[in-house]
Amino acid sequence: MILDIKKFPDPILRQKASEVTNIDESTLTLMNNMVETMMSAPGVGLAAPQVGISQRIIVVNLAAAQQEVNIQQFINPQIVEVEGSETDEEGCLSLPGEFALVKRAEKIFLKAINDKGEELKLELEGLPARIVQHEIDHLDGILFIDRLSIYKREAIKKHIKKRVAAGEY
Ligand code: NI
Fold first, then answer.
1. Separation of 55 CA from ligand 1 center, angstroms?
2. How does 120-136 read in b/e, with b if 16+ C-beta sit within 10 Å?
3. Helix, strand, or coil here: 60?
4. At residue 10, what are phi and psi to the nearest 5 degrees?
5. CA–CA dist 54, 152 (Å, integer)
6. % of residues, the chain, pLDDT over 90
7. Which CA distances in Å does 150 have to 10, 32, 85, 132, 144?
Protein backbone atom coordinates (compact mmCIF):
# COMPACT_ATOMS: atom_id res chain seq x y z
CA MET A 1 0.00 0.00 0.00
CA ILE A 2 1.28 3.45 -0.90
CA LEU A 3 1.23 5.73 2.14
CA ASP A 4 0.76 9.47 2.32
CA ILE A 5 4.09 11.31 2.70
CA LYS A 6 4.02 14.12 5.29
CA LYS A 7 5.51 17.36 4.05
CA PHE A 8 7.38 20.10 5.87
CA PRO A 9 6.18 21.89 8.03
CA ASP A 10 4.09 18.97 9.38
CA PRO A 11 4.91 18.79 13.14
CA ILE A 12 5.34 14.98 13.09
CA LEU A 13 8.59 15.57 11.18
CA ARG A 14 9.93 17.41 14.26
CA GLN A 15 9.22 14.65 16.82
CA LYS A 16 11.84 12.29 18.17
CA ALA A 17 10.69 8.81 17.14
CA SER A 18 10.39 5.95 19.65
CA GLU A 19 12.54 2.83 19.69
CA VAL A 20 10.84 -0.29 18.35
CA THR A 21 10.60 -2.76 21.22
CA ASN A 22 8.64 -5.50 19.51
CA ILE A 23 8.69 -6.53 15.84
CA ASP A 24 5.23 -7.80 14.99
CA GLU A 25 3.00 -8.18 11.93
CA SER A 26 2.17 -4.45 11.96
CA THR A 27 5.89 -3.57 11.93
CA LEU A 28 6.48 -5.79 8.89
CA THR A 29 3.43 -4.41 7.09
CA LEU A 30 4.59 -0.86 7.80
CA MET A 31 8.09 -1.60 6.46
CA ASN A 32 6.72 -3.19 3.28
CA ASN A 33 4.40 -0.23 2.74
CA MET A 34 7.31 2.14 3.30
CA VAL A 35 9.35 0.33 0.61
CA GLU A 36 6.43 0.52 -1.81
CA THR A 37 5.92 4.23 -1.01
CA MET A 38 9.64 5.00 -1.43
CA MET A 39 9.87 3.16 -4.78
CA SER A 40 6.74 4.81 -6.18
CA ALA A 41 7.71 8.34 -5.06
CA PRO A 42 10.42 7.63 -6.33
CA GLY A 43 13.01 8.10 -3.62
CA VAL A 44 16.17 6.50 -2.26
CA GLY A 45 15.21 6.47 1.42
CA LEU A 46 12.21 6.90 3.71
CA ALA A 47 11.81 7.14 7.49
CA ALA A 48 8.65 6.11 9.37
CA PRO A 49 7.90 9.66 10.67
CA GLN A 50 7.58 10.75 7.02
CA VAL A 51 4.50 8.52 6.76
CA GLY A 52 3.14 9.71 10.11
CA ILE A 53 4.52 6.90 12.29
CA SER A 54 6.88 8.08 15.03
CA GLN A 55 8.96 4.90 15.29
CA ARG A 56 12.65 4.29 14.63
CA ILE A 57 12.37 2.53 11.26
CA ILE A 58 14.01 3.48 7.95
CA VAL A 59 14.07 1.93 4.49
CA VAL A 60 16.83 2.74 2.02
CA ASN A 61 18.01 1.82 -1.46
CA LEU A 62 21.72 1.23 -0.98
CA ALA A 63 22.35 0.76 -4.73
CA ALA A 64 20.89 4.12 -5.73
CA ALA A 65 24.30 5.35 -6.93
CA GLN A 66 24.39 2.52 -9.50
CA GLN A 67 20.75 3.15 -10.55
CA GLU A 68 20.02 -0.30 -9.18
CA VAL A 69 17.89 -1.63 -6.36
CA ASN A 70 19.18 -2.99 -3.05
CA ILE A 71 16.47 -2.32 -0.51
CA GLN A 72 17.35 -2.57 3.17
CA GLN A 73 15.02 -2.11 6.12
CA PHE A 74 16.62 -0.97 9.38
CA ILE A 75 14.97 -0.95 12.80
CA ASN A 76 16.47 1.20 15.61
CA PRO A 77 19.45 2.17 13.41
CA GLN A 78 22.40 3.74 15.19
CA ILE A 79 25.57 5.30 13.86
CA VAL A 80 28.39 4.10 16.11
CA GLU A 81 31.31 5.75 14.36
CA VAL A 82 31.96 8.19 11.51
CA GLU A 83 34.95 9.04 9.33
CA GLY A 84 35.72 11.92 6.97
CA SER A 85 33.32 14.41 5.51
CA GLU A 86 31.81 15.04 2.12
CA THR A 87 29.45 17.66 0.67
CA ASP A 88 26.85 16.68 -1.91
CA GLU A 89 23.39 17.66 -3.09
CA GLU A 90 20.39 16.35 -1.14
CA GLY A 91 16.67 16.46 -1.44
CA CYS A 92 13.86 14.98 0.66
CA LEU A 93 10.45 13.52 -0.13
CA SER A 94 9.09 15.69 2.70
CA LEU A 95 10.41 18.86 1.01
CA PRO A 96 9.64 18.00 -2.61
CA GLY A 97 11.43 20.10 -5.19
CA GLU A 98 13.94 21.61 -2.74
CA PHE A 99 17.64 20.74 -2.96
CA ALA A 100 20.83 21.91 -1.26
CA LEU A 101 24.44 20.95 -0.66
CA VAL A 102 24.75 19.16 2.70
CA LYS A 103 27.91 18.20 4.53
CA ARG A 104 27.86 14.66 5.96
CA ALA A 105 30.31 12.07 7.21
CA GLU A 106 31.89 10.21 4.29
CA LYS A 107 31.88 6.85 6.02
CA ILE A 108 29.68 5.45 8.80
CA PHE A 109 29.58 2.33 10.92
CA LEU A 110 25.95 1.38 11.38
CA LYS A 111 24.25 -0.89 13.89
CA ALA A 112 20.60 -1.85 13.34
CA ILE A 113 18.05 -4.64 13.66
CA ASN A 114 16.58 -6.29 10.58
CA ASP A 115 13.02 -7.49 9.96
CA LYS A 116 13.87 -10.87 11.55
CA GLY A 117 15.02 -9.22 14.77
CA GLU A 118 18.71 -9.94 14.06
CA GLU A 119 21.40 -7.40 14.84
CA LEU A 120 23.29 -6.08 11.80
CA LYS A 121 26.61 -4.25 11.60
CA LEU A 122 27.43 -2.42 8.39
CA GLU A 123 30.11 -0.14 7.07
CA LEU A 124 28.84 2.31 4.46
CA GLU A 125 30.43 5.08 2.46
CA GLY A 126 29.52 7.62 -0.21
CA LEU A 127 25.86 7.85 -1.23
CA PRO A 128 24.61 4.92 0.91
CA ALA A 129 26.22 6.51 3.99
CA ARG A 130 24.62 9.86 3.09
CA ILE A 131 21.16 8.33 2.63
CA VAL A 132 21.33 6.51 5.98
CA GLN A 133 22.51 9.66 7.81
CA HIS A 134 19.66 11.65 6.24
CA GLU A 135 17.07 9.03 7.23
CA ILE A 136 18.37 8.65 10.81
CA ASP A 137 18.13 12.44 11.13
CA HIS A 138 14.39 12.09 10.40
CA LEU A 139 14.10 9.79 13.45
CA ASP A 140 15.44 12.64 15.58
CA GLY A 141 13.19 15.29 14.04
CA ILE A 142 16.02 16.75 11.97
CA LEU A 143 15.59 17.80 8.32
CA PHE A 144 18.37 18.44 5.81
CA ILE A 145 17.58 22.18 5.88
CA ASP A 146 18.64 22.20 9.56
CA ARG A 147 22.17 21.33 8.41
CA LEU A 148 22.45 24.41 6.19
CA SER A 149 23.48 27.95 7.04
CA ILE A 150 20.62 30.03 8.46
CA TYR A 151 20.70 32.13 5.29
CA LYS A 152 20.25 29.11 3.02
CA ARG A 153 17.61 27.58 5.31
CA GLU A 154 15.53 30.77 5.36
CA ALA A 155 15.82 31.03 1.56
CA ILE A 156 14.37 27.51 1.19
CA LYS A 157 11.56 28.24 3.69
CA LYS A 158 10.69 31.40 1.79
CA HIS A 159 10.73 29.50 -1.51
CA ILE A 160 8.35 26.89 -0.05
CA LYS A 161 5.97 29.64 1.19
CA LYS A 162 5.89 31.08 -2.32
CA ARG A 163 5.20 27.67 -3.80
CA VAL A 164 2.42 27.01 -1.24
CA ALA A 165 0.80 30.32 -2.16
CA ALA A 166 1.00 29.36 -5.82
CA GLY A 167 -0.46 25.91 -5.09
CA GLU A 168 2.75 24.24 -6.26
CA TYR A 169 3.89 22.53 -3.08
NI1 NI B 1 14.14 13.08 3.90
1. 15
2. eebebeebbbbbbbbbb
3. strand
4. -55, 130
5. 28
6. 99
7. 20, 36, 20, 24, 12
Ligand 1 is an ion; residues with CB less than 5 A from it: 92
Q: Does 6 reside within a domain?
A: no
How many structural domains is the chain composed of? 1
From 68, 135, 154, 168, the catalytic residue? 135
Task: Indicate which CATH number applies to the domain containing 91.
Answer: 3.90.45.10
Residue 5 in any domain: the answer is: no
Give the chain's mean pLDDT: 97
Tell me which residue range forms the domain holding 36.
Answer: 11-165
Tell me: the pLDDT tens digits for 13-70?
A: 999 999 999 999 999 999 999 999 999 999 999 999 999 999 999 999 999 989 899 9
Interval 88-114 mean pLDDT: 98
> Is 2 a domain residue?
no
Task: Please say if 135 is a catalytic residue.
Answer: yes
